[in-house]
Amino acid sequence: MLSKLVIQNYAIIDFIEINFSEHFNIITGETGAGKSILVGALSLILGERADSSSLLSKEKKCFVEGIFNIEKRRNVVKFLNDNDYGEDDELVLRREIAANGKSRGFINDTPANIQQLKQLASMLVDLHQQFDTLELGDSDFQREVLDALAGNERLLAEYIGMYSEWKQTQQQLEALTASKNNFQKELDYNRFLFDELHEANFSENELEDLDNELQLLSNAEEIKMALETSVYELKESEQPIVQTLKQLVNKLSVFASFNANLEEIIKRLQSTQIELADIGNELENLNNDVNYDEQRINFINERLAVGYKLQKKHGVQSTKELLEIKETLQQKLDDVLNIDEAIRSTQNTFDRQLKQLETLAETLSSKRKKVVDAFEKNVNSLLAQVGMPNAVIKVVVSDIALHAFGKNAIEFLFDANKSNRFEPLRKVASGGELSRLMLCIKSLVAEKINLPTLIFDEIDTGISGEAAKQVGVILKQLAKQRQVISITHQPQIAGKADVHFYVYKQVKNDMVNTNIRQLNTDERIQAIAQMLSGEKPTAAAIENAREMIAN
């Protein structure tokens, strides 16, 4: 519900503030007083294009703010939470236009882009202007009308959820089929690559270990000579290092008791002697293990040649990477074996879901078709009431392939003159006809659909008398369920309002400004009487106006 609208420095509006009723609000005023300017300002917070030429004064910015009560609008609350705009029972939409034409939008004082404003505004306000009723010709809206009248809300929600699951299964099936085709193309090549690696049968780090061993074998003679020399010097020379250290320990030990530092040095020499003796033994063992083996060298060279060739082929540098490639190839070969089973399983799921969808779609279609006759009858009856006795609406529900909302294509057709030549609404209905037709339709579904605030800009164009009265009756009835704001020239409609606002011009600081005020009962009688008989209403007009308000 739009509870308050604030406009500053827009067109010929200096500053106005309007507090709307939650039911039926009427806005009247003389032609040119600025009623359409109010709608233009409101359009700014609904996401329409901003223009700096709309500014009354170039010295300050234009400011339009709408305050909405959103207590019962779950879709609005979800939008605010999803986009981090905060959640409260009150929502503020604001649009600012600077003198340079730069425009900014805000949702709850947080900057928002125009697309976000439009998306949110569509949940809050339904604005109907002459030649601006595209929604009525929209296939989604037409379907929503039938579903609302048929009570399809829960069934449709179940269908939509299952349709989403079915489409996901379809995507999985297509992906599996595509994968199988790709696997089949690559199968022989992958098997060849795998067989190469499998035949090579490398163990972990084998190539790196073989390379180290080859370096050892290739330099065996030099290594053996160095080892023998080291062992000789440590253990077997005329003056072995180990023996020399032992002798030093024995000579110094005689004097160990004379000096504490000397005792420590003797211990270190003993440790060194023992360590060098152990090193000598290990070097001797290594020397015994190092032998030149031409046959082993040839084997290693052949093994490394196979490994390096495979590394180059696969663009890798290590045995580990070759083993990882082998594992990946093994997985691909296994996938070929397993994919047929996966396809069969997914196909079974797809078929089962499709059967359930078709059953739900048929139920939805049946319920939609059942309400068509009553809907056509009620709309056509209302059209006659609002001054369109020759107009006829016809609803065509045809069966098509399954889609996100069932299996129906729904089209509202229209014949304005009982010519029996029905055409789609958007092609043949005039702006005034569409506005009144929209009013008739929405009055029928108001209790079924959570409609936003409905704003009708001069819906009464081209009608008067009894037709205008019936439009007022429908608007009044509609306003029991939803907030309605209507700009009108018809006294019959104005008389039905819960709250009546009057737009007028006044001269302020040598400038003409548009202003607005809420009328009390006496002022309403006077305003409606003027609508009936002119600026100086007759006593009969005043009495007539009083009866309109009373009734």
Could you please describe the fold and organization of this structure?
One of its GO terms (cellular component) is bacterial nucleoid. Pfam families: SMC_N. May be involved in recombinational repair of damaged DNA. Residues 1-507 form the RecF/RecN/SMC N-terminal domain. The protein has 551 residues and is α/β, with parallel strands linked by helices. Among the domains are: 1-125 and 498-517, P-loop containing nucleotide triphosphate hydrolases (Rossmann fold, 3-Layer(aba) Sandwich); 177-338, no CATH class. It is built from 17 helices and 15 strands. The protein has helices spanning 35-45, 74-82, 114-124, 139-150, 153-200, 206-218, 220-236, 241-253, 260-289, 294-314, 319-385, 425-428, 431-445, 465-478, 491-494, 521-533, 539-550; strands spanning 2-10, 13-19, 24-29, 62-69, 90-97, 103-107, 110-112, 125-128, 392-403, 406-415, 423-424, 453-457, 484-487, 499-508, 511-518. The chain is elongated and about 150 Å long.
N-C termini distance: 26 Å
Q: Structural class of the helices, strands and pairings?
A: alpha/beta
How would the global form be characterised? elongated
Average pLDDT, rounded to a whole number, is 85
Beta-strand percentage range: 15-25%
Strand order of the largest sheet: 2-1-4-5-6-7
Radius of gyration: 46 Å
Give me the number of helical elements. 17
Low-confidence region ranges: 130-134
- Mind summarizing the main beta sheet? 6 strands, antiparallel
Query: What's the β-strand tally?
Result: 15
Helix proportion of residues, in percent? 55-70%
